[in-house]
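Budget justification aside, the reviewers requested a transparent look at the raw inputs and outputs of the sequence design task funded under Objective 1. We therefore reproduce one unedited record. The lines immediately below are the structure tokens for a 368-residue chain.
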């Protein structure tokens, strides 16, 4: 197999959309790593749904409106966002580029965009916090040991992260057939550096009638009571990532969780689940107008962001496109990718006749 091309130092003139980054990334990543990043769970029904769900809505533009007061600024959980877009937590970014998460952080700074740093980052959360100038959030995966989980929270607080995003939809890996077929394995030089002090897992001997999933892997998975415990142990706002059911969203709100991310983890965990966009309107209806809702999965266009906002999201997260852009052109690529999305959102708002984010609502859409 041929070696992947090194990251570009400038942006080619035909690289003009996020889908172009996806195409280019194939040349800049080894095949197994590309498949690991691009792939989803099992038959990738959730993954495909993430893109298809956006196509089921069309924008109903209005004409001849004043646009000069237009703005994409908004307030989200105590922070001002220039654009309603954050970089999603993405593990092991050294897979995509030798500078890994540090390059993404520099791009986030250049574009004044918030970054959510993964528990499974391949750069330390302290180094990233020291680099990040804009909104910096920490994504927490519960660990098998509460003391160690709390130590991660304390490190995030001490490093200056302002929000905790707790991911709850991936207590174990989905069925990742595509990555398996490509023979993907994490290279030995890349690791979850934030977890190096993790106490070794106690050796558990299962009885023959016990299940490796239920009594094994899931025995340490967090439950609602762990989330409650976390709320009592941090003053940072807590956002739950991976909500798809309206009742879970209502429970989160009632427990005092500050906001949710509607997400199917980019179609990488359970297959055959709805896209976030499919369940967004019902969840918004159930939690009320004021509750903070973020959404991710399949966003590749300014029109996608517009549709998510129209159906009730306050902001969106960008997952794979950031890693593809990182592989193609490092920090420059990520910054360019974010710039493309911003321009597309502004052009969409201008042409749809909605100068402010508050003007974007369900009346702006019709079913395809
Ligand atoms: C390679 C890769 C690694 C990811 N790592 C994490 C992670 O460490 N923590 C997490 O909460 N989500 C993780 N996600 C999920 C993203 O945060 C996000 O939910 C998803 O990628 C959004 O879909 P999109 O890729 O279509 O934008 C990862 C996604 C990808 C593609």
């Amino acid at each position: 197999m041929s070696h992947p091309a090194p990251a570009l130092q400038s942006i080619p003139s035909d690289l003009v959309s996020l889908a172009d980054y996806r195409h280019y990334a194939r040349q800049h990543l080894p095949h197994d790593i590309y498949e690991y990043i691009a792939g989803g769970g099992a038959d990738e029904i959730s993954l495909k749904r993430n893109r298809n769900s956006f196509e089921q809505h069309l924008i109903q533009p209005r004409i001849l409106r004043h646009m000069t007061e237009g703005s994409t600024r908004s307030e989200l959980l105590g922070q001002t966002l220039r654009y309603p877009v954050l970089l999603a937590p993405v593990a092991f970014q050294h897979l995509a580029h030798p500078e890994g998460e540090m390059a993404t952080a520099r791009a986030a700074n250049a574009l004044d965009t918030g970054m959510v740093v993964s528990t499974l980052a391949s750069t330390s959360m302290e180094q990233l916090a020291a680099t990040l100038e804009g909104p910096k959030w920490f994504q927490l995966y519960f660990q098998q040991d509460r003391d160690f989980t709390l130590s991660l929270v304390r490190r995030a607080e001490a490093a200056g992260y302002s929000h905790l995003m707790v991911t709850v939809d991936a207590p174990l890996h989905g069925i990742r057939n595509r990555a398996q077929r490509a023979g993907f394995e994490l290279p030995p030089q890349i690791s979850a550096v934030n977890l190096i002090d993790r106490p070794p897992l106690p050796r558990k001997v299962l009885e023959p009638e016990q299940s490796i999933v239920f009594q094994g892997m899931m025995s340490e998975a967090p439950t609602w009571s762990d989330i409650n415990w976390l709320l009592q142990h941090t003053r940072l706002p807590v956002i739950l990532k991976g909500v798809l059911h309206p009742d879970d969203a209502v429970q989160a709100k009632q427990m005092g969780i500050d906001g949710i991310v509607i997400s199917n983890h980019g179609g990488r965990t359970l297959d055959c689940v709805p896209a976030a966009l499919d369940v967004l309107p019902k969840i918004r209806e159930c939690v009320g107008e004021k509750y903070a809702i973020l959404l991710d999965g399949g966003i590749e266009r300014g029109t996608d962001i517009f549709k998510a906002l129209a159906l009730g999201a306050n902001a969106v997260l960008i997952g794979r496109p950031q890693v593809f852009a990182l592989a193609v052109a490092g920090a420059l690529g990520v910054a360019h990718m974010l710039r493309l999305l911003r321009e597309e959102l502004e052009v969409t708002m201008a042409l749809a006749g909605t100068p402010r984010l508050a003007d974007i609502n369900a009346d702006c859409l019709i079913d395809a």
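The pocket of flavin mononucleotide is lined by residues 37, 50, 88-91, 118, 120, 139, 167, 241, 263, 265-266, 268, 296-299, 318-320, 323 (CB under 6 Å). Residues 320-352 form the longest helix (33 residues). Computational costs for records of this kind are itemized in the attached budget.
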